[in-house]
Structure prediction request, 222 residues.
Amino acid sequence: MNQLLLDITPATQPTLDNFVAGRNLELLSALRHALAGSSSERSFYIWGETGSGKSHLLQACVRAALDTQRNAAYVQGNVPQFAEVVAVDDVERLDDAAQIGLFDLYNRMRDSGGMLLVSGTQAPLHLQLRDDLRTRLGWGLVYQVHGLNDDEKAEALAQHAQAKGFSLPTEITQYLLRHGSRDLPSLMAVLDALDEHSLRLHRAPSVPLLKEVLRQVLGSKA
Prediction:
């Protein structure tokens, strides 16, 4: 069997339109209104488990701002001095200097305008950060990003397969949800690998082909 490409990631770029909202409709609506200028809310802190969609939302907001010719930045680590829209991912990983930078940025954006989005794995109260920064993060809108249930993941996978031009049989979805990773980005990456593998072999996607992909991509014994 040919060696599969192990670092396949979904080809679609994160946007607000291709975010599968599930139980996060209120959050998605709030972000859209803030980006459109129809809301006075300018600071968002979103938190949830790995794979729940936090990075997707932050990157999508930055993309939406850039599409309207605004200065915007998505960062993991060093915080920019200023931009109209700034998205800081994985806030709990910031070192002392970056935490000070984010604190200063928050104050500047509060005084001069702009939109700040920050993500983490815990609610503000439980973050191991500077007290003054943790307090600031709790002043804006705080949302927990809820991961998708299996039915919602199945719908998202079916939509992703359709966008790539093939129909996803139910048995493939069920097998992938049982044996694949639990987070949606990883599931979609496996789906992309399955598509690539089936095209290479000129065979329709099937559970046996999915087993081969899982063994290669995840080291699974499925």
User: Anything to note?
Assistant: The chain has two domains: 25-144, 150-217. The beta strands are 43-47, 72-75, 85-88, 115-120, 141-144.
